Write the structure tokens for this entry.
Amino acid sequence: MRIAILSDIHGNMEALTACWQDLADIAVDTIVCLGDMIGYGPDPDDVICSVREHNALCCLGNHEWGVAFPEARHWFNHTALKGVQKTASLLSPESLAFIAALPRSLVLEGARFVHGFPPDSVTTYLFQVEEAQLALWFAQGEALTFVGHTHELVLVQYTDTGIEQCELGQELVPVPTAPCLFNVGSVGQPRDGNNRAKYALWDTQASTVEIRFVAYDIACTVRKIEARGFPEYYGSRLW
């Protein structure tokens, strides 16, 4: 089975469309979205509709959590909260109902899929997690985990010498035999020094994860961010 894994689209329809176009020539069996389909970007409703049209399996991200449950908004800093509030005003009732019902994690083909940190946190960033907590998850959880949230590409694995972390690029990575965790980056708002959209392909039979980089029309997204009243900063940091 080949599974496409997308995370942190953040209302960026241009980036998502570019990823769909990239996937058009690749035979995938399932698409999984690790949350934060919305927030920061100008097309939240279109993104949700597109993800649903592609029959993706989705889990809750912190931005869906904040939009669907106003009592959760205390968690967001001032800059992010503006996006949450604006995004909420742009979603249809159907999209709001959809995100409110999302599960906090998924298990598929023996792997755990979650936005923040397993088993089901939508707010914990990978860089906040201490080695002892990682070791505990590797000892008790699924052997393979996929997360998003940080917008960075990282492989974390349990080795004989302890926990090892390495940054990932546009590459094909054999899945380690020891317990491991892939942070799959961001479709709509990368923060890894490369402004292309990022997503991953997990081949369960070959036991590989391919990281793919896709160029898209950033200028178009930036213009829409400004036109729709989001903070200008949301657009400038896409470059």
